[in-house]
Amino acid sequence: MPQPLSPAPLSPAPLTPAQFRHFHDEGYLVADHVFTDADLQPVIDEINHEVTARAEALVKEGKLSRTFQELGFEHQLGAISRETDQLAMSIWNGVLNGPAIFNLIRHSALLDIAEQLCGPELIGSSVYRLRPKIPNHRMGPVPWHQDSGYFEPYCDKSLVLTVWLPLIDATPENGCLWVAPRAHRQGVVRHVQVENKPYLHILSNDLPHEPRNKPVCVPVKKGSVLLLTNLSPHASYENKTDLVRWSMDLRYQSASLPTNAPITRLEGDSVPTGDGLVPTACYPPEADFLVRSRLRPSEVVTDPAEFERIRNSHRAGGLSRKWDNVPAYA
Ligand SMILES: O=C(O)CCC(=O)C(=O)O
User: What is the CATH number of domain 17-316?
Assistant: First the structure.
């Protein structure tokens, strides 16, 4: 496809030079006041609607005593999960793909930040996650890892930006994230898959132990976001409150990296080689989509129904990074 002769001008850079430097030097940054409550409320409403609809179905099946709808966003799923895990597990991760979630992923304030860090041809990475961190839930604590532990090695040297955003204030008590600062320049360290555990894990000996990398606790207010690189080690611990610590983590990358979004490839873009040397995507199991582009504007996904179709019709392909399995006592 021919490229337009004069692409639209770049968006103004939302991060100050000091914030930009902090992100690159420390491997993380909290950007405050990115969203208003009004920006986030449609996502909360969409999640509430989905939780209640799924709860009603479970009540009909006799698996749940009642919907607990009156408890509201911060408590309903916790009460449901004391009776059945089925509902929480059915919405965890990138399963929900409704219009409000889609509109959050393509919110202009986020795309401006992502563009400043990843460049103007922007892929919404397939790895977006909804995390209802429920008190005393086995999926709640997330062990130390780098996001690249999950991605194809080919993408290790490029930025895949994580935008972690809480839907209620994230505090040390309810399990906000911890980050090992300045450890993102050391490449991908060994991860292991611990038997019967849901997440990859960096064993303590493999974590950086220099004083400069001493983990910091990063509370984040609703409306603010935590930015991480794909090489920044991070973790979150138990939620010790009685609230559900709802959060989402979204990811963005340049369209020149491997992607399974059906986009026109331009000169210099990575193209899958079929032998796995250049993979089909940084994370092939789920569907990427183009969220902003000046060179391929007609290919940007703007219709929520199209987003839902892309996500639901994707068939996993390509490689998935492999790590050793270790027994549960490790
Ligand atoms: O939300 C959490 O507790 C963990 C998030 C995380 O590990 C990630 O976004 O990669």
Answer: 2.60.120.620
